[in-house]
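Record 1 of the preview.
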Amino acid sequence: MTGKSTLSTARYLAAAGVPVLPLRAGKVPFGNCRGCTDNACGGRPNMKTPGPCACPLPCHGWAAATTDPHVLSSPAWTAAWQHAETVAYHPGGARVTVVDLDDADAIAWARKTLQPTRTVPTTRGEHWIYRGTMRSGNGVRAGVDIKSSMSYARWLGPGTGTMAPLPAAVRALVVKAPAVVRPVRCAVSAPAGVGTCPHRSPVFLERGIAMAEQRITDAASAVHATVYRTFLAVLSAHGRCGCLTEAHIDRLFTAAQAKGESARHCTDAWSNAATALGM
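->
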């Protein structure tokens, strides 16, 4: 594709509610700018949720995908489209899941195992697209990847066939046994108290931590940004009085890692939230 045709395709998809991003040579997203390296900016959410990163560039891979026509046509993104090789989209943001079948053997397996759905031919195989979102996973079986939340897929056309609901057989592909979360303990310390505790009882803190855990657990998309915003809210409410302990932080890190976040990202998000609050 040329820069003009990629932008035209991106605008068409965005108008239909499909969040898009440019892919550079090698069919990979544009890398983070210097200011956003290692999520120093606090991370970036998907296209519908305001977040801590105001970088105008198409940073942060899948999380940069947008449906905003003003962003797509901004000077920074226009420059990226000029160097883009193709258009990608965030399946989770479009509320779909892509089963990426890399070869003939994988296609044969899908035809025997999975419910028929909309199909898009790829260079070597097919994309099977279902309604609904789930956790993404690479190499879930030979020649099969799952692209949905926190992932991107190349736009290769609308495909053919009727899109079916996401079947349990696809969801089961990313379930590993035993399905036990073994989180890495938090690598940060609870902030020291610097003021008078405003809480009348420990119940207030317990309710706040439980609500924060649930907010992370319920995140269907924009998990990076949800984790950051939740950490920010917890520190804002409980980080200055000395009530917050490392056991509380461990609970938040456990919830985040259960959603697929790495221990490093949890530590970065916590540190960035503390910095944003001047702690």
